[in-house]
Automatic annotation (TrEMBL):
Coiled coil start-end: none
PANTHER family associated with the record: TUDOR DOMAIN CONTAINING PROTEIN, TUDOR DOMAIN-CONTAINING PROTEIN 1
Record-given protein name: Tudor domain-containing protein 1
Organism, as annotated: Ameca splendens
Keywords linked to the UniProt accession: Metal-binding, Zinc, Zinc-finger
Keyword Zinc: yes
Lineage top rank: taxon: Eukaryota
Origin organism lineage: Eukaryota, Metazoa, Chordata, Craniata, Vertebrata
PROSITE patterns xrefs: TUDOR (PS50304), ZF_MYND_1 (PS01360), ZF_MYND_2 (PS50865)
Domain MYND-type: 5-41
InterPro entries per UniProt: SNase_OB-fold_sf, Tudor, Tudor_domain_containing, Tudor_TDRD1_rpt2, Znf_MYND
Amino acid sequence: MVYLCKFCGQQGNFRCKRCKKMPYCSVVCQTEDWMEHRRTCRPVDLEPAKEKPKESMALLGAGHKKSLTELQASDSSSYKKVYLKDLQASKITDGADIQATVVEFTSPGRFFILPQNPEVLEALQIISTELQKTCSNPSGTAYLPCDGEVCAVQFSCDKNWYRGLVQSLAADKTANILYIDFGNEEKVPFERIRPLPANIQQFCPCVMKCRIAGVVPVVNEWSDECCITVRQLLAGKAVTVKLLETVEKECAHAVDIQLSMRELLSSFLLQNGYAQNEPVNAPPTKQDISAMLNASFENFKCLSDGKDDNGWATPPEPLTQAVGDKFSVVVTHFLSPSDLVVQKVENAGLIQDLQLTLRNHCSQVSTPQNFRPAPGTVCCAQFSEDKQWYRAKVLAYPSEERVCVGYLDFGNAEEVDLGQLLPISASLLALPMQAIPCALAGVQPVGESWSKDCILALQRQLSNRVLQLEIQGAQEGKTLVSMIDEASDPQTDFAELLISAGFAAPASTTVNLSAEETTATAAASVSPTVSSSASPAVSQPLVWSMVELPSDGQTVPLLTSVVESPGRFHCHLGSPTELQKLMELEVQLKHHCEAEASPFVPKVGEPCCALLP
């Protein structure tokens, strides 16, 4: 998604340093907007208060307020905060068998192992030694940690210092700490927490958070009997662990463990009735989709009596383009090479004006109590990340008060509260949808679907770049495109890049034709051929057909293609249906001319195919 400056509406490539969310194009705009933004700004990474003393005081809630003396003491030294993302990545790869000790066990769905690897054990020794040396002296300063920070923490049992991850902060000046090199947790007061010293090497966490792969509890949670039994089997013991998958969203590893009798722990759990097989995320069937739509409609109807269903606000027309069109784009939403969304760079000014108009409109419209837009209608929705308003189509009602919306000009979707929707005006629907759903032409996945490595690699290549796009055709409601990064040296064709890297296989570019064209093509393919002994077929003369415009005063949308004079110019019918037919005709012409090799002598007045120079 392309983010726009909250104050002026231009493209905002910078973020508020305090909340890391609100986009701005410059320091000037951020300063001008501060009086309004400070009401909603919430810190993610607390900065040293000596730079922003007033903000630091504001960051402390009612339960976190310090005296001015304590705050000034904490500001006397500046530290670079360390987060998990700053630590080195683990060198253990999926599919590896490792010898490890289970050091902390909660359930088969959450436990920690310490690999019995000389490098890991040496790193653990170095970290422990350096922390005791550095943190042995009293600091004399108070320190306020923040969520997600890796700090030096004094363990309550042995009073030694260890690396701890701040998982949450409480109003009583304590933090919930996870010791990332051992896997245990405890509640620690702020006075036993310090910033991680700069001399501590940023090794990856020594323990690995794991769960048993392929199984889930029979009921919602793992039973006490199951947890006690498995803990007795594993706790403190050296075992062989097979790393099956790294689940980045959970920051955990899906593993299986080999027990003493060569039995896998997953099998043990299934045989003893402690677990059931994890359901496979198969694509939903037609029945599943129908059931979801029915449930969504019932959630919508439940509280809709007497409410404004927004039925008049239909989605605006999509942008129109033809095969062979070339233009510069930015990728605003990416899921895979077959599912991405782009915006035209040349339309950046239009989008900027639209966002400013939306902002003014939504600031003047109060949330109506009876507003409950029906699925398929368009309204204004407040995006959860930047709290700005965008044009959105209501997709479904997952619950009575929650709505799934799709952002028309950027391509992404999310679930929001009903209170985050406002009615839209007719003037805001005049601009066509700026999001162009695309699929990369000429490639297909090597297996059944695109691999995670492929998606990550291409996402890095596409993000924050202006790319040159050429339309190749259309397929399954998406525009088939080729994309080139002209700024790279040599220029990067992303389809060729995926194929050369082994992420994709070549595929032909196919185009969906209208029913009439498909029927004609099928009929031609089964028509009998004429034998060489028969009389040669007499070709019927080709004649032009013309589009007839209504002459009864109707208004018809037209797109001008050639203007010779005010008295003579040429146009296309501008409706989406006619433009789609034109695009499909161009594809047919291209395929016909590439396949036709016989010589041709044109006659005056006869229709033919010609290559535009």
